[in-house]
Design a protein that fits this description.
Length: about 270
């Protein structure tokens, strides 16, 4: 029901735009929203959906955890002020290892009858498209309103996804009341809120730091399971959580160090042209 979730997200953000009386987007912003709809939402959502059919959720989620590393690689080539330093890569790798420990504490086996190599190909392609989109969003972060771009992304994606849903699945008539309630909750807390925060982050922090916050998601999910569902606390969860936080700190520190170094070079250049 991804299509219905994205459609509802577009409606909700559209209401916010009307309430805030945000001006209509320019043609440039519309084009930007279209690009983000393709590379940051529609294509990766579709690819991940098919990947989940070929492998377990844990296995695909582990591949999805490569998104911050993909973002750092694209940022290295697209953003002159975000080089992929050794320190940043080490931080990203440590955080990824933490996510791996978290996911491996549960069921990450391949689904029976699945095709793991197909799942890997689909998931890694999705990871690459999101990495490109993240760097692209950061590169143009000064030219758009986060709320408007979020709405454009949802609106374009909703059109394509809803059409595909009706063409493949038909009318969603067998959804229960609990199912619709879940769609509403997912639209608000797993779609609208994360993307609004993400586009705000693109305007205030580096693309890599914005993407690396995604490493906190599986940690929060597992903590929620421990607190709300009384799930068992395993050693992998503790180790993974510690590694995630250490990796984020290392990556952030490396980015700040690089920024300070470049600022120092610019100051020297200004003093001694």
């Amino acid at each position: 029901m991804v299509a219905m979730r994205v459609l509802l997200a577009a409606i909700l953000v559209g209401l916010v735009i009307l309430a805030r009386r945000i001006p209509a987007p320019t043609a440039t912003v519309v084009r930007f929203g279209l690009i983000m709809a393709v590379f940051n939402l529609t294509v990766p959502y579709v690819l991940f959906t098919f990947a989940y059919d070929e492998a377990s959720a844990g296995f695909v989620s582990l591949l999805a955890a490569l998104i911050p590393i993909s973002t750092a690689v694209f940022a290295n080539f697209m953003l002159p002020d975000e080089p992929l330093t050794v320190g940043k890569f080490v931080g990203l790798f440590v955080a990824f290892a933490g996510v791996a420990a978290l996911l491996l504490s549960g069921d990450t086996g391949l689904s029976e009858g699945g095709r793991p190599f197909v799942a890997v190909g689909l998931a890694l392609t999705a990871v690459a498209t999101i990495g490109f989109a993240s760097a692209f969003a950061k590169k143009h972060s000064g030219s758009y309103d986060p709320t408007m771009v979020t709405w454009l992304q949802f609106a374009f994606s909703a059109i394509w996804l809803v059409v595909a849903m009706f063409a493949i699945e038909g009318t969603p008539s067998d959804v229960s009341a609990a199912g619709w309630a879940l769609i509403v909750l997912m639209a608000v807390f797993a779609t609208v809120t994360p993307f609004l925060i993400l586009y705000w982050l693109y305007q205030h922090v580096s693309a890599t730091n914005a993407a690396i916050t995604g490493y906190l998601v599986p940690l929060f999910v597992i903590v929620g399971g421990l607190v709300l569902l009384d799930e068992e606390l395993q050693a992998g969860i503790v180790i993974g959580g510690i590694l995630v936080f250490i990796g984020i700190i290392l990556a952030d520190r490396a980015g700040r160090k690089q920024a300070a170094h470049e600022a120092g070079l610019e100051e020297i250049t200004e003093v001694h042209p």
